[in-house]
Amino acid sequence: MKRSIFFIITVISMATIHAQGLVDGLRYSQENTTGTARFNAMSGAFGALGGDLSAIGINPAGSAVFLRSEASISASVTDKDNEALYFNTFTKSLDSDVSLNQVGGVFVFENNNENSPWKKFTLGVNYNNTQNFDDELFIAGNGNTSISNFFLEQAQGVPLSLLQLQGTETIADLYTFLGENQGVAAQNAFLGYQGFIFDPVDPNNSNNTQYTSNVAPGSFNQEYTLISDGYSGKYTLNLATQYTDDFYFGINLNSHLIDYQQSTFLFERNNNQGSTVNEIGFENNLSVLGSGFSAQVGAIAKVAENLRFGLTYDTPTWFIISEETTQYLETERTVNGQTSTAVVDPRVLNIYVDYELKTPGKLAASAAYIFGKSGLISFNYSYKDFSEITFKPTSDPVFASENANIDNMLKGASTYRLGGEYRFNDVSFRAGYRFEESPYNNKQIMDDLNGFSLGLGYNFGNYYMDFSYARSEQERQQQLYSIGLTDSALVNTINDSFVFTFGLKL
């Protein structure tokens, strides 16, 4: 059995095991530092500054800081470098992507009544790419647990009659029936049985519910590939106003989109004494589409000539999510000296009932000091309680279990951002730093994130160009499967992002 065969299949259909859980909720709850080049160059420390289209997403009052109408568009090139350590074997993988980071505009309406304390009103529309899901992870090593355990554990307790084809029934027919009536675990058990990974203890009893593996204990050479692509994005409608010379207020209405595809493929071989199955190739594909809504309210106050404070509240985001999956299994076995291959390819698209996901809200405070026209320094602090991630309906026993797991494993996490800018004539030099606490109670599962950024900008008068470079690094444990083969690889991920912005002052 050749691994390259499965790469062709992976290209045809992309994705992973269906099971809404903690990892999925966390994936859609986190936001990266994306947007304009200026915003990225200062690591997103814009809560008390405003005057930038991506800053509107941090504090909606920021659009009222604009002195004139403005529009901008930003593109990014990102490199994601994954270094994995699995049973003392080191592997490295890299994924690069070009994407639209941001596009939007803000329109400033001055109040002609000079006696009114309301100085101006602003209307803003903006799109920000909040997460780029493009990734490639390759893990390899000699483990001591077989993927056969994944199938065997889910088969225990399932009657043999549900795993055997009846009459003219096809693989697709029974796979579909099990998905509609028994669930994902029964489908996985069916794949394993049809792939000869395990046998019933009592093969002559259709009510048999106990099974024994055809893969003997020992060492297993394993290669695991995870490929994902897609994005999450936020469309913002912004309204803001300036009151006197010292106060700015704003509100955002946000529409969120999720487009995510993931494919995992595990290839395992063994030559253990007693094994009749020596090679297993297992592919899982997942496709996710989601839409959601959130709102933000914010304010900025000038408390001194050069000092500003900002405060923002983000509501939770309410998503409706749709998921589809496909699976494929191929095994090679040797019985009585004869080698044969079993292919279990249902060619069935599992379409699941839409579910709801509530991601946590966020509270942020910020401060900025302006050094006249020569530069500034800005600081942001935000807090988000990831234990409040909730799958709905909560009456569903699977969701109730996952929600309890989230509550036990995740916690509130703080994010710190520091940015600065120095202006020399029409040239701006920028830099930033960010630190994000791990959302896990156990930091060995996912460590804190550290990142820094640099940037340049040039003001041509009625238009400007900005460039930024940002780098972040985070370490985590990547568990291969939630059942059976639960071994983890230590993965260190480095993100490099280059952003270019063209802006026009109207």
Provide an overview of this structure.
The chain has 506 residues and is mainly β. It is built from 7 helices and 22 strands. The strands form 2 sheets. A 14-stranded antiparallel beta barrel has the order 1-2-3-7-8-9-10-15-16-18-19-20-21-22. Strands 5-6 form a two-stranded antiparallel ribbon. 43% of the residues are buried. Residues 1-18 have low confidence and may be disordered.
Euclidean distance between termini CA atoms: 62 Å
State the shape.
elongated
Largest sheet: 14 strands, antiparallel, barrel
Mean pLDDT over the residues: 93
Q: Quick one: CATH class of the largest domain?
A: Mainly Beta
Q: Classify the oligomer.
A: single chain
Category from helices, strands and their pairing: mainly beta
Number of helices: 7
What percentage of the residues does DSSP assign to strands (E)?
over 45%
List unreliable stretches of 5+ residues. 1-18
Helix/strand order, N-terminal first: HHHEEEEHHHEEEEEEEEEEEEEHEEEEE
The counted number of beta strands is 22
Number of domains: 2
CATH architecture heading of the largest domain? Beta Barrel
Radius of gyration: 27 Å
What is the helix content? 10-25%
